[in-house]
Amino acid sequence: MASQMRKVLQGTVIYEQGKDGDTFGYLVSGKVGLFLNFGEPDQFALDEMGPGEGFGEMGMLNGRKRAVTAVALEDSEIIEISESDIHQFVTEHPEAAVRLLQAMSRRLQGATDEIVLAHRTIKELIEELGDHPVRKESLRARLKRYASFFFEIPSDIPPEVYMDYYSRINHH
């Protein structure tokens, strides 16, 4: 198997959004963060991975460019696995395959929850408008509140905690 162990120091960019992705990483130790627009003013922390979790599988499996930037949040050890080695890796490490599926399921559920919330918000706005004239300030305020979720995330709050909090306060 051509997979290789890679040690990365805290702050190292493991792969960049928009680049080709022909491997995925399996985290042996440390922490890795996944970011949209890393290093930009509109940077958004999507997820944080710990030991036993994988990342980068989407780009490897679907042949698309990387959707996010992966950054070591701590000194980390990563096994990089190529598409040609995935079958052997899964055969030799079935528990790792299960953890990878669990992490993918968790991320998919988070994305689904956001789609549901966005759909509900848009539906409520349309219903509120009805045949009445648009109250621009009310509409603007609600859209701004919803958009703030994506652009004004406190940097010291883990994404899953923030998303859970945001979901609870905006379901009313």
What does it look like?
19% of the residues are buried. The longest helix is centred in the middle third of the chain and has 36 residues, at 94-129. A hairpin with a 7-residue loop joins strand 4 (32-36) and strand 5. The chain is built from 5 helices and 8 strands, in the order E-E-E-E-E-E-H-E-E-H-H-H-H. The chain has 2 domains: 4-87, Sandwich (Jelly Rolls), CATH 2.60.120.10; 107-169, no CATH class. The protein has a 4-stranded antiparallel sheet. The protein has a 4-stranded antiparallel sheet with strand order 2-7-4-5, with no helix packed on it. Helix 2 packs across helix 3 (94-129). With 172 residues, it is of the alpha+beta class. Residues 168-172 have low confidence and may be disordered.
